[in-house]
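Thread amino acids onto this structure.
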């Protein structure tokens, strides 16, 4: 025999139901936030609009879903990008084009860089500057010059310990102590090893601190891309 539900019990049930709905709502919100706030923007990117890097994938949402369904069913070779296209060098270069970059990434597509590509991915900005990390340079290794400069030799070497000697001694962590990777800072590299920038200053710069290479640059970054207004 069923007992009648007393008003008091009804109040109780409503209360429990309320808490349940509230918790579900909180869970939903936190999941949503986790999607939107992926991690702190990298140094200098704090004010960029999301859409400067996250471009819409080609096609409408409906077309994208259909294409992906066909992929799952084996009727299509590749999956389609959903909502957003992956971020590529193209987006970065829209604001960071530096015509005299010492290390322009496109150069590393040449066959002779195959091994370096596999070890380091020097053909992609994101290999060294992964976004949403609250830092400036995310590749922590500072000796990766070894991948390409094992045979670097200067005819009239101006440095007190010449380059071939530095390389024979495997002093690969010294390179960034005199050279900035892209050569975009307006400066001259030191000619004596006692002037090498200490590694901890370089690490601090990578992590978002002051530049040991000075503040002046040949090509400052653009703030917004053209198609963004
Ligand atoms: C400077 C470029 C840049 C900007 C600006 C930027 N992002 Fe990203 N974001 C990236 C990169 C690079 C990734 C890594 C995944 C990829 O390659 O697409 C990423 C990944 C993500 C992801 C994870 C999705 C995935 O595919 O892994 C989310 C979510 C995201 N970003 C949201 C945002 C939001 C929200 C904003 C604006 C507040 C924003 N991003 C601004 C570059 C950027
Ligand atoms: C909409 C323009 C825009 C886009 C797109 C963009 N950046 Fe930036 N970036 C900036 C601005 C502005 C700064 C602030 C520093 C400055 O003025 O040079 C900056 C700073 C940086 C810095 C630190 C520079 C410093 O000296 O502090 C790095 C590294 C960087 N961006 C790499 C990237 C990479 C990699 C991508 C692609 C994933 C990218 N940026 C996409 C505009 C952009
Ligand atoms: C192999 C690693 C590597 C790759 C690939 C790489 N960078 Fe860098 N980047 C560095 C290092 C190391 C520094 C710090 C030394 C310096 O300032 O040049 C740096 C500094 C920067 C700076 C700040 C100094 C400046 O030039 O104004 C910007 C902006 C930047 N990178 C953008 C990019 C973009 C855009 C790409 C792709 C086109 C890219 N980087 C590819 C390693 C890399
Ligand atoms: C993926 C291969 C690769 C990596 C990694 C690499 N370089 Fe280079 N570097 C090159 C090439 C290619 C050139 C152009 C030389 C030429 O013109 O033949 C170059 C040129 C240079 C130049 C001379 C720029 C000029 O023309 O005045 C300097 C300095 C330099 N690299 C330093 C470094 C340092 C320091 C590192 C490590 C932080 C490094 N490189 C990492 C391939 C690389
Ligand atoms: C004590 C500072 C210092 C150190 C350490 C140093 N260099 Fe240099 N490097 C110089 C100077 C000075 C030049 C002369 C050219 C110039 O003014 O840019 C130069 C020139 C170069 C060139 C250009 C060669 C050319 O033909 O124009 C390359 C490539 C290079 N260095 C790579 C490296 C690599 C790789 C390392 C690490 C093994 C390294 N350097 C360590 C100071 C340094």
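Threaded sequence (229 positions):
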């Amino acid at each position: 025999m069923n007992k009648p539900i007393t008003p008091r019990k009804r109040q109780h049930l409503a209360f429990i139901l309320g808490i349940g709905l509230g918790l579900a709502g909180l869970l939903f919100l936190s999941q949503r936030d986790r999607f939107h706030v992926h991690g702190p923007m990298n140094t200098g990117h704090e004010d960029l609009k999301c859409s400067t890097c996250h471009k819409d994938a080609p096609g409408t949402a409906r077309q994208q879903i259909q294409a992906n369904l066909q992929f799952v069913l084996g009727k299509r070779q590749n999956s389609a990008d959903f909502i957003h296209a992956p971020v590529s060098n193209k987006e970065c270069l829209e604001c960071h084009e530096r015509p005299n970059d010492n290390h322009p990434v496109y150069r590393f597509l040449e066959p002779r860089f195959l091994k370096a590509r596999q070890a380091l991915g020097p053909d992609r900005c994101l290999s060294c500057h992964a976004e949403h990390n609250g830092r400036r340079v995310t590749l922590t290794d500072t000796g990766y010059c070894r991948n390409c400069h094992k045979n670097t030799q200067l005819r009239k070497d101006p440095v007190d310990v010449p380059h071939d000697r530095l390389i024979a001694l495997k002093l690969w962590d010294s390179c960034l102590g005199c050279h900035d990777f892209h050569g975009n800072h307006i400066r001259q590299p030191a000619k004596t090893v006692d002037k090498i920038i200490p590694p901890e200053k370089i690490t601090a710069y990578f992590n978002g601190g002051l530049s040991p290479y000075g503040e002046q640059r040949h090509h400052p970054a653009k703030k917004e891309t053209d198609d963004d207004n």
